[in-house]
Amino acid sequence: MRNKGLLVLSMILVIPLALVFIGCEEEVTERPVNMSWGIPDQVTAFEALQREPQGLEVEYVDEETLQVTWEKGESYILPISATSDRALPGVRYQGSGIPDHLELDWLDPRQEVWFPLEEIPEERVKAVIEPKNDHFLIDFGPPGGADFEEDMTRLIWFRITPTAGDQFEFEIFGYQIEEGSPGEARVSNILTLQAEVIE
């Protein structure tokens, strides 16, 4: 009976300790920047611009995953927002798994002018495009990275024109350039786009 009591006592002591460790692990993996598809309702800037992702069909699978159906040769606007819960300097964005048949343009929202990624004025935004087999990786943002203030939201608009029928998935996330390579320096959640392009 005494041994049974000790066992129960041990469990009472150990379980809260385990919960403490689990809680710590969750805190460590939290990222200061929350990225989302579309422009949040509370953001009132650039209200005349497209605020939701476009497509023949658009479905939010969850907060980070978007499914779209696009038609070959048509153009679709893909707005993205990023909000930081703290001051954070030097944030750029990396997209991977992007098929090489997509034509990508970036919108200068103040001038309302679209630029192909390779033609963006480099003093404004530097886009590094790295081919990888039948897709490419894009490293994107101001040359020194975007500086966030606490609770600041930054907005990005891409225009995407698929030139071939396909099914694909690509990801995008934010990272802090002074902290090392993008994967090691990731400061945001990962957004995933799952797309079907019909002929």
List keywords for this structure.
eight-stranded mixed beta sheet, five-stranded antiparallel beta sheet, 199 residues
Q: What does the model show?
A:
The protein is mainly β. 14% of the residues lie in helices and 47% in strands. The protein is built from 1 helix and 13 strands. The strands form 2 sheets. Strands 2, 3, 5, 8, 9, 10, 12 and 13 form an 8-stranded mixed β-sheet that branches. Strand 6 (102-108) and strand 7 form a beta hairpin. It is globular. The termini are far apart. Residues 1-28 have low confidence and may be disordered.
Provide a concise account of the structure shown:
With 199 residues, this protein is mostly beta strands.
List the helices and strands and how they pair.
Layout: H1 2-29, E1 33-37, E2 57-60, E3 65-71, E4 76-84, E5 88-99, E6 102-108, E7 113-116, E8 126-132, E9 135-141, E10 146-148, E11 153-162, E12 166-176, E13 191-198
Parallel strand pairs: 3-13
Antiparallel strand pairs: 1-4, 2-3, 4-11, 5-9, 5-10, 5-12, 6-7, 6-11, 8-9, 12-13
Number of strands: 13
Q: Between the first and last Cα atoms, what is the distance in angstroms?
A: 74 Å
Percent of residues in β-strands: over 45%
Q: What percent of the residues sit in helical stretches (DSSP H or I)? A: 10-25%
Figure out the total of helices. 1
State the secondary-structure class.
mainly beta
**What are the segments in which pLDDT stays under 50 over at least 5 consecutive residues?**
1-28
Radius of gyration: 21 Å
Average pLDDT rating? 87
Order of helical and strand elements:
HEEEEEEEEEEEEE
- State the shape: globular
The main β sheet shows up as:
8 strands, mixed
